[in-house]
Amino acid sequence: MSAIQTHLAVDIGAESGRVMAGLWDGHRIRLQEIHRFANSAVAVGASLRWDLLHLWKEVRDGLSLAGSGAALQTEVRSVGVDTWGVDYVLQDSHEEWLGLPYSYRDIRTQGLVEELCALLPRQEIFSESGLQFLEINTLCQLLAAQRSHPHLLAQARRLLMIPDWLHWALSGAAVAEFSNATTTQFLHPKTKSWSTGLLDKLGIPSHFLPEIVSPGTDLGALRPSVAADSGLAKTRVIAPGTHDTASAVVGVPAAALGFGRWAYISSGTWSLVGVEISEANLSEAALQHNFTNEGGVDGTYRLLKNVVGMWLLQQLKRAFDAAGSKHTYADLVQLAAQATPLRSLIDPDAAEFLRPTNMVEAIQRYCRRSGQPVPDTEGALVRCALESLAMKYSEILKSLEAITGERIEVIHIVGGGSRNALLNQFTADVCQRPVVAGPVEATALGNVLCQARALGELHSLAEIRSVIRESFSHEMRDFQPNADSLAEWEDAAARLRLLWV
Question: For residue 249, what are the CA distances in angstroms to 28, 56, 206, 329, 372?
Fold first, then answer.
């Protein structure tokens, strides 16, 4: 291949989104940012909703920049969207919205995991979905909707996950891409079809569930109006792994160690900690440890746990800023490096950290209630959050090894959190495994290279990862475990396990 082939990744997270161009010359891939924009859930009355019209406008603006010739000098072959999981849009028979789409942080699902498991045994729900039990899952959201707004579900013609709705807006194709569909908690992990029987037992309708398609599916050309406005007349819409973690795992530059022998931490607002496996693990151990099986590319699964990740640091900074602090994230990490090690620890998954009014106060209350020293400086608070995250990663990795029977040889950290050298070193030290950090843009890379493969420019996951290793070796950084600190981490882990029981 001699000419540059260009593919666009629309990558949207809970705080921001961007349109990235992947420029592929047949040997190396490089990324160029075309457009970046803010995203946040909007409080409407007592609820928390997503402003999808804002997101759609920003996506259109990014496509127009890509098609104008001002940003790119090459023709765009394809575009694909990835976002977070679990949230959805309902459409009626005229393809109009039925209500504003909820954010997974809306309070309507509080306490519904316990109610769900009172209706059906946990083992039955797990065998029908393979998913961990979280109140943010689509299953809990639909249970809440059926109780509060059953007329909307009865009226609905179609349910589309957020990236599927954006693909519909781009192309008109109304389908459910596999990786995001698995985050609903009602897609069967063996048959890879909707678990309609599970929904029937819960009194939730399923008539609105669309066809499921695999990552790499060509959804067709851009709608004529979108093509005309953007100048992208020849651009195809290709579904990547539309769940951002699915694309991020494609973008992990792992060597050929085999299934279960390397771990990934996709580090952003959430930390997704897991291993890539060939098929869903529905063992009793996976259920007891509350692991999830989310779909990946090529029919793979991601056996993982969600941990409240950089959300802790983001919300700490928000509280510091509100109090008049002018520190950057880099400043805060430097202050944490100077703070006393392993003084106070929290469980990042504790309920009080999911929707806190003030993260500083939430962490201090937790430490006070658990009889620990209360962190009272910015450095101590940030260090508490980062050390606690590293400790959580270690516990998850030990469980993964026990469930799969494989020793994890190396940990890959990708995403924005891979820039946090202090957390990377903490992770290497507590896990006593080498850590490879980077690339930061693993999600966008996985997205665009999945598109490239769908169009015949690459042939396998292994080839995609080889391209990323060669193209981004300058960005990747190794962290080796410090054996001298292991005793301190083990003492802290024993103390923390008492808090987590």
Answer: 19, 26, 30, 25, 37
Q: Could you tell me if 222 and 171 are in contact, meaning their C-beta atoms sit under 8 angstroms apart?
A: yes
CATH fold of the domain at 244-249+260-309+391-485: Nucleotidyltransferase; domain 5 (3.30.420)
pTM: 0.91
Strand (E) or helix (H) holding 229: helix 224-230
Give residue 70's pLDDT.
Answer: 67
Task: State in Å, rounded, how far the first CA of the chain is from the last one.
Answer: 57
Q: What dotted CATH number matches 5-238?
A: 3.30.420.40
Pairing verdict, β 435-437 and 410-414:
parallel
Active site residue 244: yes
> Using CA atoms, how far apart are residues 444 and 191, in angstroms rounded to an integer?
29
Identified catalytic residue from 87, 164, 244, 429: 244
Q: What is the mean pLDDT of the chain?
A: 95
Best CA proximity match to 132, nearest among 307, 306, 303, 290: 290
Give the residue-averaged pLDDT of 288-315.
94
Average pLDDT on 299-323 reads 95
Angle of CA points 240, 244, 246, to nearest 5°: 65
How far lies 152's CA from each of 44, 100, 184, 246, 343, in Å?
18, 11, 18, 30, 50
